[in-house]
Amino acid sequence: LHGCSAEPGRRPAGLTSQRSANSRADLTREIMLRRRDAFLGAEVGRAQRTIFAARYLRSRELQREITEGLNVVEAFNGANSVIYYGKGGEIASNSRDEQEMTVLCLRILQAALVYVNTLMLQDVLAEDDWAGLLTPEDRRGLTPLFWQHVLPYREVKLDMTARLTIQTPTPASGP
Fold first, then answer.
1. Do the beta carbons of residue 89 and residue 81 sit within 8 Å?
2. How many C-beta neighbours within 10 Å does residue 71 have?
3. What 8-state DSSP symbol labels residue 151?
């Protein structure tokens, strides 16, 4: 046999180099296919962005919806910067556990802020003076995520034995 080794268990040299050439060709083909798929994916992404931009420019309703969503995100980030004002709002630890704990505490504080603000808004809106002033659109525009009344640089004394003096709505009497 031409190109065969006389040693048992060894492949002929020609067969090994042929497989090596095939695997290189397969690898090259795979790389080319992946590049093509990435290129096509990028082109589809560009087309989707162009369609979205055209839809955005044409639709005032979509522009309002996106602006409202961005305002909510900005309010969220603004509240976090007020609540977490130490070290310039930066999470200073490199420890993943401490970073996670900081973020979870921020979420709890923000949820508490929203809860108290919601109760205060309900009290104010329950007053007769406000009943005719706000339209349904005005009411939809209200958000409980405000923090102008928060004083982050002062000492706050909490009396955990007393409740907040927030009114609770009285149930309407039935017929």
1. yes
2. 13
3. -
